[in-house]
Every structure is written in structure tokens, then in C-alpha cells.
Amino acid sequence: MVLYLNGDMNGALGVTLSFVSPFFEKAFFPEAFIVRAAAFYQLCYFDRALTWWKSLKATLNLFESNQSIAGPRSRNLALE
């Protein structure tokens, strides 16, 4: 996050790459998706930014659908 705030978009992409690797497939780091989408946007890779944003939305929707099985579902205003 500090790299992104300091304007080092390539560094931010490199750091967040490990959080979206298969090693962490059972963990969820939404910040990594957001930082990657924002960094790609700042680097004018709009298609990649949109891909990461859609990936985050799909993951959050999947998470919400799994939570609704366990209990009451709260509304996620970030996706609207």
C-alpha cells in the first residue's frame, strides 16, 4: 500500500502479486485486488484494471453467497 501511495505502481503490483498467488488460495486479501486494479488504472492498463475489479466483485459475490448459507446476509454497498 505504501508503494502505491508513493507512486510506485510497478512496485505495488509486485508486492500484491504474492497475495493473489495459488499459495494463498484459501485466504482472501481484498486490498490486493483493489491496489492491483488501481495501479493498473494509473498505468493506463484499463482493461487489466477492469479485469481485477470484476474479479474482486465475483469473489465478494461468491463469499456473500457462502455466508448466506451460514446465516443472515448483509448488504454489500461496495458492489452497488
Q: What can you see in these coordinates?
A:
With 80 residues, this protein is an all-alpha fold. The protein has helices at 2-5, 9-17, 30-42, 46-70. Helices cover 64% and strands 0% of the residues. The chain has four helices and no strands. It has one domain. It is globular, with a radius of gyration of 14 Å.
Brief summary of the model shown:
By secondary structure, the chain is mainly alpha-helical. It contains 4 helices and no strands. It is 64% helix and 0% strand.
Could you outline the blueprint of secondary structure elements for this entry?
Layout (H helix, E strand, L loop, with lengths): L1 H4 L3 H9 L12 H13 L3 H25 L10
Helix pairs in contact: 2-3, 3-4
Q: What's the total number of strands?
A: 0
- How helical, in percent, are the residues? 55-70%
Structural class: mainly alpha
Distance between the ends: 24 Å
Strand proportion: under 5%
List key phrases describing it.
4 helices, mainly alpha, globular, single chain, 80 residues
